[in-house]
Fold these 4 entries.
Entry 1:
Amino acid sequence: MRTQVAIIGAGPAGLMLGRLLDLAGIDNVILERKSANYVLGRIRAGVLEQGSVDLMTRAQVDRRLQAEGLVHHGTDLSFDGDRLRIDFTDLVGRHVMVYGQTEVTRDLMDARQGQTIYEAEDVSLHDLDGKPWVNWVKDGVTHRLDCDYVAGCDGYHGVSRASVPQSALTTFERVYPFGWLGVLVDKPPVAHELIYAHHERGFALCSQRSMIRSRYYVQVPTDEKVENWSDDRFWDELRRRLNPETAEALETGPSIEKSIAPLRSFVAEPLRFGALFLAGDAAHIVPPTGAKGLNLAMSDVAMLADAFIEFYGERSSVGVELYSARALSRIWKAERFSWWMTSLLHTFPENGPFGRRIQRAEFDYLAGSRVAQQSLAENYTGLPS
Ligand code: FAD
Ligand code: DHB
């Protein structure tokens, strides 16, 4: 088999890249280790920046997003019960859209024209400095795909980054001593907008998927086990971290999903090794506090698709050569913002009383400074690429 671009991974990065290449008439094949249903079953991000919404429009997959997505003009921060609304529209003239990653993935899967091979096991990459090819095993049979380029869109634990010699890669990492325990519930959201709450017992987030489905998170230690959290324990802990009126208004019910995600900041540099390009979580991880993971994956593949379109359309390698530097410039700004939001809102026991006072001062500064609020709003709604 032969294709122009072999895409590893059918998460949002791989599927969006495949869609943009399909629309440009560039042949591509996606190889995904799991089944389509497994990919759709993963509950992850929920907030789309304007740039990601625009990309869905460019990819002609925004019909449901426009009909069902919820426009959010602001968000709430809460610190020990004191509330501060960040009004994105007033501050920077932009907004975000609440639309789940599962829905983005479903829309892209439904629109897919090129070939996607699900349950492709043991994917391996070869001859990345020469004439690249990819191997995989399906139903016990080994297959081979020759290509011009490989796009590594296979997430943090994927084979693409692992195929690069360690000496060719510099990695930067911060692992936080906590994770997020998330619960999905079929109840209306507690508030119209999201609430990011700092409390001495730990961070909490009130998010949503629709007018009748809510997503809530609480900070838990890294080694916490989801089995230790009954629904009742989760709701009690969440209420304790919210201000009394919000806690009172919270509608609870049986969880339809419950999982723990570790928090990590990670960047690999560069993003290109010969014919291999890394994009999305394969290249970088942000802690989820700034809602950037999915959005960064989208902006990476928009740049990568444009580079391939330039290469095949104009026979110019400029975009391909510049992809790594261009994408990394945006990635590091999102890394900074995600680290900053995480530092402001979580409890870091090792930072002691001094650290908490600094967090309080940061919150008070935000509350009193329109300029500081503008900076938050500018980053949260998405920096230009
Ligand atoms: P992924 O979505 O990870 O997709 C990669 C795909 O590659 C997967 O389908 C995987 O099965 C496949 N794959 C892996 N290895 C191979 C292989 N060897 N061969 C073939 N295929 C392979 N972001 C937020 O903004 N907010 C959140 O609340 C949030 N929650 C998260 C919770 C969890 C548990 C995780 C892991 C991430 C979360 N994120 C969140 C981050 C966000 O979901 C990711 O940034 C986003 O999924 C990145 O998309 P991607 O396509 O790059 O990677
Ligand atoms: C959600 C996740 C986030 O990381 C975030 O910052 C906002 C919302 C969510 O899953 O809804």
Entry 2:
Amino acid sequence: MSDCIFCKIINGEIPSAKIYEDEHVYAFLDISQVTEGHTLVIPKKHCQDVFDLDEETAANLFKAVPKIANGIKAAYAPKGLNTLNNNGSFADQSVFHIHIHLLPRYDENDGFK
Ligand code: 5GP
Ligand code: ZN
């Protein structure tokens, strides 16, 4: 989608700190680091949200999540990690290209919640 900022990140029009890439998926650091290493995982195919997500794209997206989570674990040594996905503005989605937040957790004062 031409006016989607995450599509622009995928095609390099907007710079990003890349964490992982394969044929179907791109992962990069969130511009607003809620916790250190806060990462967004997105499908290269533009899908708006979970309601718009076809099964093949869902499988490709979630297949990459354990690899990326383990990379974050190795790099940042968090004590845990939240995966989070907002769908629809009522549910706090602000960018309408589906994304999974990976939020490394360090302690009770790490900035999340
Ligand atoms: P949402 O609120 O839709 O679940 O999450 C959207 C996320 O995208 C936010 O955490 C926001 O910081 C992040 N974001 C928005 N614009 C950009 C950008 O241009 N670059 C990066 N790396 N992250 C962005
Ligand atoms: Zn998009």
Entry 3:
Amino acid sequence: LVARMRPFGTTIFAEMSALAVRTGSVNLGQGFPDTDGPAVMLDAAAAAIHGGRNQYPPGPGVPELRTAISAHQKAFWGLDYDPDGEILVTAGATEAIAASILALCEPGDEVVCFEPYYDSYAASIALAGAVRRPVTLRAHDGRYTFDPAELRAAFGPRTRLVLLNSPHNPTGKVFSADELAQVAALCAEFDAYAVTDEVYEHLVFSDAAAPHVPLASLPGMRDRTVQISSAGKTFSCTGWKIGWACGPRPLVSAVTRVKQFLTYVNAGPLQPAVAVALDSPPSYYEQFRDDLQRKRDRLCQGLTEAGFAVLRPEGTYFVTADITPLGGTDGVEFCLALPERCGVVAVPTQVFYDDVTAGRRLVRFAFCKRDEVLDEAVARLRRL
Ligand code: PMP
Ligand code: GLN
């Protein structure tokens, strides 16, 4: 194995899901729903498979999906992207992120990101031979914030891009207009690109301080931003791995150049089905959000009753909690012991930080599960 990949073992998600299977635990570790997405989408996929759409689709993605992504970006975020040349379909958001970094970073270039960061970020940055410059999110009064001076200090002459995930996994933070403006101003000052991971764009809860705002919609940012999302979260089909990248023609063309040699194309018959899902009425998106908000409330209450210090998320389908009130001092030890102690799997957020002290006592639970599963997990955790 090449040196730059040696620090990376098995992903924490695979590791914790395997632990859940091995111990028969309730799995609130890896973030995937346990119910299917819209029936019209599933039917459309079956129809596409039986309708002969089983060969290589066009490189940028099937036209009806690119058209549907374009309409979605316009309807929800007021952003205009031409389906021909400004939208690329990828193998999930994961490939879009990797291809963007590989397309834009020379070896030695720096990537500013917020930690805790989604685990593929560090690996994709390393694959490109680039260097990550994390800015730490810290919990204060129940909210995760960063120090603006630390953000500024992370930028420098080698900064090539900022990789921003909002709504943010694992904290559930939704970046405010002011925070986004700080990021945008630094991108302009240092002439950096932005790559935005917005896979939880439709999961900002009604009591959040701010709605979701794509960084690309800030003045001057559209021209320097690759905006990424995926069907996996919004349509509960994480196994389909259909994602996309939108941006100005030169950036999407660069990302496409790389993507074509990573996977060439992906999942032909699933693409028209995602197009159908994206055309869902507004009520679909509202109900999806409201359902997850109820689940958030259900799990947050249960975790609080079980003794955790809960950091209530404003978005995503994850909640982080501090284990200190339960006598825990190290999230990794806590999560490895949890299946034995009570038959529940969670993820230690420490593994998403370079500064491990910042996340040492935090663990993450996923609440994208049926109510009875959440209730069973809480009943078990209350035995701690
Ligand atoms: N980014 C974040 C923040 C995520 O939580 C996930 C989780 N699945 C992904 C990217 C990957 O998305 P996909 O499955 O579409 O590759
Ligand atoms: N995004 C999901 C999570 O954060 C899992 C994705 C994965 O397993 N790679 O749990």
Entry 4:
Amino acid sequence: YEKDVLDVISKTSKTKEAIEKEKKQAAEYAAAQVPNHIVLGLGSGSTAAYFVKAINERIKKEGLDIQCVATSVGTEKLAESLGMPMLDVNTIDRVDLTVDGADAVDDKLNGIKGGGAALLFEKLVATMSDKNIWIVDSTKYHKTLAGQKLPVEVIPFGGMGVFRYLNEAGYKPEFRFRDDGDILQTDSGNYLIDITIPDDADLAKLAHNLKNYTGVVEHGLFLNICDQLIIGGDKVRVIDRP
Ligand code: 5RP
């Protein structure tokens, strides 16, 4: 088989347990690299949660002087429940390092975030950060982002107009719903519309067009933001942005 085909086979045959193990491996590897005396952005999602727990252990055991900023209400709650030292994002103007998960990442380290609906706060903290490290399991790493789902956060007022625009433009939009059937609202009370990235998409152009459409608050394309990708595995892979 071609290498790409083998990659697909190995990704689709991974069990849920194997994927969880890789998430934890990536998170623990990242936590071990965090330097002392920094302001640290805490990402959102299940992989980021492994990281939060691992860095909390180091802070407590080693008595580290690390102040944290959360990227979602969920992460804030987790960090507070662990008694971590938290800062209000409005009281700082920069973050030294943010460690976050991702939904899909390509070989240029461009990626998609927002599977956990936290893309707006995540992008805010990421753009304030001197360095962004993403931690993922191996199923998230792709040659291209074409065909992947991309969340677009819209204000409820006029969200239907954005949906129509995305539909007419051929992006196959779908509003995101919660498991109980209600429409999902983000931490800012907005709606999410998931679109599909076309095969021939120019990512920079797509990001620009989405951002400039009235009613769109943010989108989950994170271009030129991730500085280092850590992929879990028995041998952890570390890839720096080219
Ligand atoms: C939340 C995110 C998450 O980082 C992303 O969805 C990955 O989540 P998980 O680690 O649970 O797979 O962007 O908005």
